[in-house]
Amino acid sequence: MIIRPIKLILLILISSHLISCQAQTKPEARQTPVSIPIAIGNSVSNLYQQIWEVYQDSKGNFWFGSNGEGVYIYDGKTLKQYTSRDGLVHNQIRGIQEDDRGNLYIETPAGVSKFDGTKFTTLEVVKSPQSEWKNETKDLWFNCNGNHLYRFDGKVLHELFLPMQDLSLLNVGLNQYTQDLSYSPYSVFGVDRDQDGNVWIGTVEAGAFRYDGDSFVWIGEQELSTLPDGRVPGVRSMLQDKDGYMWLSNFNSKYKINKDSEKGYEKVKAVDLPKDQVKDKILYFNSGLRDQEGNLWMTTYGGGVWKYDGYELTNTEINNGTENVLLISIFQDRDGIIWLGTNNDGVYKQNGKSFEKFVPDVGK
Predict the structure, then answer these.
(1) Could you give the C-alpha distances from 204 to 91, 145, 220, 266, 319, in angstroms and in order?
(2) Count of domains for the chain
(3) Most buried residue among 18, 103, 296, 362 by CB atoms closer than 10 A?
(4) How far apart are CA 342 and CA 340, in angstroms?
(5) Does residue 152 lie in a domain region?
(6) Which strands make up the sheet holding 188-193, listed edge to edge?
(7) Are 295 and 308 in contact (CB under 8 A)?
(8) Inter-CA distances, 300 with 59, 251, 280, 311, 339, Å
(9) Mean pLDDT (whole number) for 50-64
């Protein structure tokens, strides 16, 4: 700062202490400008009809991921919407996770966006060699709508590739649907962990894999690939029951790792279903969870919600009075309440033994 002579004389005269001409003035401290984050997102009053994901973060906020309109956050009073205009990498949401520092990770077909509470950043993908297959407790796993498999170690988003298997007995590639979409049989449909922390990976047509951090067990069964009638349900969700068996997206069979067996696993019948109970029902589920009491919950696309308590499998239809609600996902919050994401009717919330449509209480 330059002090002109006249101003310097005035400063000396009004000083409370007499100072000699040898004294020097101290330079003024410079203040660093404070950067105020630009507020992003828009306040809205309603959710989009296609809500594919429901998640509750560590602060108690609910996040709703839509199929085309970005992601919403609801704190019990306000509802805010974030889209690609706010930095989100894509508006179709396929998953929501949180790390131990409170950062949110929004999974989309175009990649993963990290939200730190103020802004979105897109994680950069690194194609990893085989040595980057690891299984650490804090790792987050993504499949981005079947567009490969990713492991995030907190710093790097590693792109991984499943070990190739002999798929000749699984009728792979005989379905016109997967041929038209140019899917790889190894495209990942789902990633889950069992109670011991092992990672289970479900694919479109190549069955399922279990990875313990050192090695793989491949479960290559016909029911997990192309079915005799040409359908390809895929392994979308993998659940472990009270007895340690894994349910791999269907009610037909369940599996348990057995290192002494030839294949590395054993397979048994999952549950006996009366014919009248399964009439016109699809015996494959696209999402599921194990609740706080150990019960299994599974959702089907148009076939309602199934619950297995270890003894009996029961079904609850979900409809809005005019049509069946097409269920996509299922989530249990910290209070034990179960939520359903749908493809045609927003979000449903458990109310006792039934489910009702959730309407955010905004501005009331």
Answers:
(1) 23, 11, 12, 22, 28
(2) 1
(3) 296
(4) 6
(5) no
(6) 188-193, 199-203, 208-211, 216-219
(7) yes
(8) 30, 11, 12, 20, 14
(9) 98
